[in-house]
Please model this.
Amino acid sequence: MAALAASAAAAPPAPVGIGIEGVHKSFGAVHALVDINIGVRAGEFLALIGPSGCGKTTLLKSIAGLIPIDSGRITVGERVVTGPGPECSVVFQDFALMPWATVQHNVEFGLLLRGVPAKERAETARRAIAKVGLGGSFEYAYPSQLSGGMQQRVGLARALAVNPQVLLMDEPFASIDEQTRRVFQDDLLRLWSAERKTVVLVTHSMEEAIYLSDRVVVLSPRPGRVHQVLDVPLPRPRESGDVRATADFARMVDGLWQVLRKLQ
Amino acid sequence: MVIALRTASLVVFLLLWEWAARVPISFNFPTPWATFTALIELVWSGALLQASLTSLQSLALGFGAAVLLGVPFGLVMGVVRPIGRVARIYLDLLIALPTAALIPLVILSFGISILSSAVIVFVFCAPFVTMNAYGGVRDMRPRLVEMARSFGASWGQLFARIVLPSALPMILAGLRLGLSRAFLGLIVAELLLSPFGLGRLIMDSRSMFEHDRMFATVLWTLLLSGAALAGLARLEGRLLRWRM
Model:
């Protein structure tokens, strides 16, 4: 209850959309991305999927401003992306936690870089840690003392602590075991519906893409192009029911598989 | 358990020593007891402390300069790759160099002074300190840099918050390696050149055939370096608590 009141006080900014227009990116002779056009709506949960080498991670990092694109334009809200910006937070597949820093300090990191005063930093970080379900006893633990699933919760808390409008997730559940992953996915959906952030999720799991997102963008490899965009009209909230057991869910996963198998 | 083993190994070592002195390998080889009494006597007379102070000055000067110059330079080598690629060749050569052979050259350049032994100490330890700092930066996980950049980190923040802490374990290991090399360099320098310090005490005792005094001084040097290294190890344990 206290956490809810506090996050209401922090007034989450309205979500923003992402525009990807005619984006090209090559690494030497390899065409990683060719003429990519995607519009991500404000507050949408979008999944990027495709065989390895389709450039999905490259696209995500381009949105984050971590990789410069060769031509085309990416906008996040009003801002044309030329480098990392304050609206976006990234969640990494390998968590990217600093092994020398406690959970608390890892989560504070984004705030520290942005010059937030120590006291406010500590409080905001503590709230974010509680939000991802780690509150109470893990603040002073080091990453190496946590399981993979818990480490990724720290990664998510760090991303949320700076109160971004856009969450960019690069295969966040890929190195987490299945049971932990399912619980985590539900927690993510709960957070997403409470905070209304725009989410772009890179994944190679078809079930995950269907279960979590509003739309799935299928990218084809070498060169990376948008192959198809699928709508996922499954009702929300999905986390409280047993969506995975429904015929609709199975049909959508199979439909996605029919698209992907032709790309192998 | 560990304490018992340590005590036992010490006892065995002293017994072996006693036995070796009685056999005798050479009648000049002192027993542990003789060495110990000589050590007490040297401490009481003040000669040992006097010599230690002089020696530690050279050590502090040489090792301090190695840390102050070597660590930053090693970090620069790691961050600016072209510099690293060129400089590491010279450092590899310096490490392979028979440093003791250079001592006459150092004396010619700096005269017989504390400065000379400090320079030799520096040459003994600086390449190791530098190389470790360089290696520390090279071992850094690039993902952490990416993460910090995603939060909009500036160059200065990247360096202070990611590069430096990433390299710290290797830097500290380099300091310990460097310090033991510095003690080695110190004694070599003082044996070969300077009429002062612990090296001189060793030389004087030897030329007077006072081998118990000589052994006592060597033992004392060992104690000094052991204490200094233990101090560094403690600092390391504190700074790298996350590794425990």
